[in-house]
Amino acid sequence: MSISGKSAAGTETARAEFLRLQDMLLAADIAYHQKDAPEISDADYDRAKRDYLSLLETHPDLAEIATWSEQVGAPVASGFGKITHAQRMLSLGNAFEDSDVADFDRSIRNYLGLGPDAALAYTAEPKIDGLSLSLRYENGVLMQAATRGDGSVGENVLANARTIADIPQEIPGAPAVLEVRGEVYMSHADFDALNARHAERGGKTFANPRNAAAGSLRQLDAEITRARPLRFFAYSWGELSEALAPTQTGAIARLKAFGFQTNPLTRRCDTTDALISHYKDIEAQRATLGYDIDGVVYKVDELALQARLGFRSTTPRWAIAHKFPAELAWTRLEGIDIQVGRTGALSPVARLAPVTVGGVVVSNATLHNEDYIRGLDSKGEDIRSGKDIRIGDWVQVYRAGDVIPKVADVDLSKRPETSEPYIFPHCCPECGSDAVREEGDAVRRCSGGVICPAQAVEKLKHFVSRAAFDIEGMGAKQVEQFHTDGWVKEPADIFKLAERYGTGLQQLKNREGWGDTSATNLFAAIDEKRNIEFARLIFGLGIRHVGEVGAKDLALHYLNWDALAAAADRARPAAVAHRAADEAEERERIKAQSEGRRAKVKETRDAATASCAVPTEAAAAWEDLTGVDGIGPTLGLSLSDAFANEHERAAFDRLLAELTVIEPDAPADDSPVAGKTVVFTGTLEKMTRAEAKARAESLGAKVSGSVSKKTDILVAGPGAGSKAKKAADLGIKTMDEDGWLALIGDA
DNA sequence: CAGCCTCGAGTTCC
DNA sequence: CTCGAGGCTG
User: Which among A302, A365, A393, A578 counts the fewest CB atoms within 10 Å?
Assistant: First the structure.
């Protein structure tokens, strides 16, 4: 089935062949995704896909009649280029209650140092339920259209954005660089018409306008997007070569003048009461707006204040989304399954009679943990007026944040008489080991450790996941298959796959789910990751409490594997002593409680530590480890345990033998205060303490509350007292607020 | 030592 | 996206 002809006659043949392949792929997708029953073998599917794509390459005109595109789950080699946002596209914090809005206002006033009665204006606008899009204009010409992606890197859907009537192609008189952000959405009327059209032709229909908009915007063929009635509201901006206006309100007016649609329900509000009242207004109009909204967004109006407030790790401090109450649905709870996670956590999942909630059919929902089923929260307080959840119950389901299905409530009047309280298993459903719940812990965990196959599989899934080794073509399914076969028991085995089983690929090729291409691609993808960044390696190990951020912190501190392993080894005696002290303290607490007296915490800890005789070297290594920003005793202990466990350590060594670790660059110092420890004391007149801290940290400085030997700079305002004196005694560089601002170039 | 913020680990559906 | 818990700040 090789196709190469480009002659006129060849083109006719190519066209027919193209349509044949397209039908085959579409049918196979439907069979696979909707009926869960593949009609052709994966090898045939792979071959058809490859031929289809190569035809499309040799005959670009075929794009006009192309309707098949690779689905989610296929290798990421989609037709869209990656775009790194000049300014990150963040999400918003949420408010559900009026009191959350009051908290939002209070924390802003705190941060800015404003009293409760000082003037502070906000804007309020409907939150459109669509997809956000960032449009970049250079010298007034639309150059890029990027989806949000993970917030840092999105996809360029420029060709598709150009087909949207609400998006101007050119903006005369725009700043040299103008990034406009807003929401792509589909109106109810257009959505209904589109689905009717699709249904008529026997095509698939979309579950809701949001999915329809998302599916339309991500078409590889812009002509398909053109036929979809997408719209766009502008509400924000990214990089700008010049400011649009001094206020949010003014900036939105400018965007409107540039030719964008802006939401007519956007209002400026002077008080939180005005915000809430506008929220109620919008909520009342919700059904007649003609498009989906899921709440109201509040923003600080003054842009200078927005700049001062800045951002937390994932959300701006100056904006919040006040969400409408979630849609609810009732259905029957048919069963409760227990899943075993990577750390051994047993999580109950509700199996539900399928029900539509918020435009999506839901048949699974999380039940969180043992206590949640019983009707208790983490503090042991009643959350469902005493009602537990039982199999057979009529339960109320909603999608938390309009995404994750949750079981919220139970209808006791419909409870079967024969029903009994659910008994949470006390042993692991996968390996049979005891499942224990530690004091004060909400989760029950399988104690099987290395012998539990479920934990092993989940650890492997974690290892290949996006933030860890990110091995393309090796997803959950493949990991499960390889593990069942006994080919991959631990991460190191992944790198031995080709050598052990791949000669000629014969064994793999004959398996279900594997074609020639996918096997070759997989081995290439695996080889690619033999060179791995140190932080990804640490994260990939799956040590409890060591997540993406903790792994990065450790990588930056220790720089290479040997240093990390040596630190863990050296600190071991101190780690053991720390745990002994913890346990002694726990025993003392229990004893003190039963004797009705206060626990002697400090004495107990000291005694326990003393009896362990920790060498100074170990104590120093432990101090160094737990002194890393964000690394405390819990994480330190967990790390120490992993390296001290001989099974785990041997597995680490086997893995390391397969890899070349890319070590991080030593921290750059492009700012005069990078890496310095700074203390602020006295009254600050040009900024609040929170602001000063956030600004210093953004420049790579560490801000501390007290002066010590480690302090590099003391910034002393008027009224500085003991700290200034101590700094003088220690000979620490001291400056006033202006000196600091000059140093960091913020004068 | 309490209260905040961030992180980790869990989850669903497309 | 949410919850719980770890770590840091005031």
Answer: A302
Q: How far is the CA of A378 from the C1' of B1 (A)?
A: 20
Of A69, A67, A72, nearest to A49 by C-alpha is A69
pLDDT tens digits, A333-380: 998 999 898 888 888 899 999 988 877 888 889 888 888 888 877 666
Q: Specify which residues A734 forms β-bridges with.
A: A714
pTM assigned to the model? 0.75
Q: Which nucleotide is nearest to A402 (CA to C1')?
A: C1
DSSP result, A337-391 = EEEE-TT-BEEEEEEEEEEEETTEEEEEEE--SHHHHHTB-TTS-BSSTT----T
**Nearest protein residue, CA measured to C1' of C2:** A400
pLDDT digits (tens, 9 = 90+) for A648-674: 999 999 999 999 999 887 655 667 777
Q: Which of A533, A467, A468 is nearest to A494 (CA)?
A: A468
* Distance, Å, A395 CA → B7 C1': 32
Spans of all domains in chain A: 8-65, 93-323, 328-445, 452-529, 537-662, 677-743
Catalytically active residues of A, by annotation:
127
CATH class of A677-743: alpha beta
Closest residue by C-alpha to C1' distance, nucleotide B5: A312
CA of A208 to C1' of B7 (A): 33
Footprint of strand C on the protein (CB under 7 A): A 91, 94, 368-369, 371-372, 377-378, 400-404, 440-443, 545, 629-636, 689-690, 693, 703-705
Residue A401 parent element (H or E)? none
